[in-house]
Design goal:
single chain; 542 residues; alpha/beta; eight-stranded mixed sheet; 20 helices
């Protein structure tokens, strides 16, 4: 007879009432598949890097593309959670920002991997590359993940140096801070690492240089000639052999790229690395309902509420969910579950608007999660906190402040997924990007803005009418209509998930069917660091 885990025996299994034959389900599914097709197109552009021409030229030099290097580095058949793949979308820069970042397993150790893509302008760093790199090291620092840099970069994209020079110093700051924290940093140098980039291998704990390819110097031959008049040879100035035998900058000398990757994997295997967080403690059985049905739950119209219990039934282990305060503050669902054996607390918007009861319920639940050192998962689908005379008099501002206070001062890991709308201060209360979730993702049909496009345009119209009335001038309705249309189109574009993720306001877009997998990887990653809740909070305005 198979033993049953005592907590599982007591758990409540969610019962789904979803009708896959309903018109709403079919419309949602069709809309989600359409936007996923658009997402796949953009991801293919990112994976193509600089395109076929530059990839072939790179291969002709005997070098591997960034993603092939990454594939050789990671453990065979292990999962890789890519981060910010659409960085720079909608800008003048290549989608993906000439960089590949993500969480993967190297020699059995979960690591943050940062790989330059030399097929895009020689791997030069532009403003979006910088933001993407800094976000990766921030995730590594907060979750105590060793960092492996796959280096081949021509340095800063000089035409944008004004946006790079000052904030770019943070890369060096973060690498040295990680080392001081005891988090290993490794540089595998496959090509150029020039000027400021030369400090990357210098500031990493371990460095591997590839013979005949790695060239690391503060100033290349042209700059040396201009500065000193010296005619310098590239290999003598900064080649792998010189750094391995003369300067001592290279710890390991690799004969080729595969050898460098082999040495890198060996270094990770010798780190004697141990996680400081808890191991999975609950059964990791699959949900009872098909995750494919999440395609029909993702809202095509974000104004239509979605029961988050239906989402949870297709994400959490065994579809088990212990709901907390089920009859109170019902537009916010809270409760306990697990994903891939990792216990979690869940806060999920049910009907968009957050009322005072929901805010107080959330603050209380967050405090409980901190008491028992349990990570929190936020499923955002909110239009914000309730407005109106009745609610202002009832203290909605005070109640919202309690929730935001709790979110801010909570120290257990937060993982956030935007499944629908994320508007107004509801984004803050549900642990949006400004509130430092360990990782934050979004479904591709989601929207993020200060408010919905139509509402924002309407507010601007009302303000315009009031201003005209106060000034005693005639209100131009035709001009207002044109202005409303323009504003609505602007906000609609800027709240689009592709626009939002392109500016790194989240860590990537998820196919809804991959939600469970992404959460599982994220929960495993955050357990590399201690998971400890806060026992005391700031002052709550009662």
């Amino acid at each position: 007879m198979t033993a049953v885990h005592p907590r599982v025996a007591e758990a409540t299994v969610l019962r789904s009432t979803l009708s896959t034959a309903s018109e709403e389900y079919r419309a949602n599914r069709a809309a989600t598949l359409a936007v996923l097709a658009q997402l796949d197109e953009q991801l293919e552009i990112a994976r193509a890097g600089g395109g076929a021409r530059y990839t072939e030229r790179h291969r002709a030099r005997g070098r591997l593309p960034a993603r092939e290097r990454l594939e050789l580095l990671l453990d065979r058949d292990s999962a890789f959670l890519e981060l910010s793949p659409l960085a720079g979308w909608g800008t003048d820069f290549t989608v993906g920002a000439s960089l590949v970042t993500g969480i993967g397993v190297v020699a059995g150790v979960e690591c943050m991997v940062i790989a330059h893509d030399p097929t895009v302008r020689g791997g030069a760093m532009n403003p979006w590359s910088l933001k993407k790199s800094l976000r990766a090291t921030e995730i590594a620092r907060r979750n105590r993940l060793p960092v492996v840099n796959l280096v081949e970069s021509g340095g800063a994209d000089l035409p944008t140096q004004s946006e790079l020079f000052v904030p770019g110093g943070r890369i060096f700051h973060d690498l040295t801070e990680l080392s001081a924290m005891g988090v290993p940093t490794i540089a595998l140098v496959f090509g150029n690492s020039t000027a400021g980039g030369a400090y990357v291998p210098a500031m990493c704990d371990y460095s591997v240089f590839v013979d005949g390819q790695a060239q690391v110097f503060l100033g290349g031959p042209p700059l040396v000639k201009m500065a000193t008049g010296e005619d310098a040879d590239e290999e003598e100035l900064g080649g792998a052999r010189m750094h391995a035998r003369v300067s001592g900058l290279a710890d390991h000398f690799a004969v080729d790229e595969r050898d460098a990757i082999r040495i890198g994997r060996r270094i990770v295997s010798e780190l004697n690395w141990r996680k400081l967080g808890p191991a999975p403690s609950l059964p990791a059985d699959e949900p009872r309902y098909d995750p494919d049905e999440l395609l029909g739950l993702a809202p095509a119209d974000i104004r239509v509420p979605v029961d988050p219990r239906e989402v949870l039934a297709r994400v959490v282990d065994g579809s088990r969910f212990g709901e907390y305060k089920a009859g109170y503050g019902t537009s916010l669902v809270t409760g306990w579950a697990s994903v891939h054996g990792h216990p979690i607390g869940v806060l999920a918007n049910a009907r968009g608007v957050i009322f005072g009861e929901e805010a107080k319920k959330a603050a209380e639940f967050i405090a409980l999660a901190n008491q028992i050192d349990t990570p929190l998962v936020f499923l955002q689908n909110t239009t914000g906190y309730m407005v109106g005379t009745q609610y202002e008099q009832a203290g909605i501002i005070k109640d919202g402040a309690k929730m935001i206070n709790a979110v801010t001062n909570s120290t257990v890991p937060h993982l956030t997924i935007t499944t629908g709308a994320s508007f107004g201060a509801g984004n803050y209360g549900m642990s949006g990007r400004a509130f430092d979730p360990r990782l934050i993702f979004a479904w591709p049909g989601s929207r993020l803005a200060v408010m919905g496009a139509a509402q924002l345009a309407g507010v601007m119209s009302i303000v315009g009418k009031a201003a005209a009335e106060a000034a005693g001038r005639e209100f131009d309705q035709a001009a207002d209509d044109a202005r409303r249309q323009a504003i609505e189109a602007q906000i609609d574009a800027e709240s689009h998930a592709f626009f939002v993720t392109g500016r790194l306001y989240d860590d990537g877009l998820l196919d809804p069917r991959d939600t469970r997998t992404a959460l599982g990887i994220a929960l495993s990653a955050v357990a590399s660091a201690p998971i400890e809740g806060r026992r005391g909070f700031g002052v709550f305005r009662m």
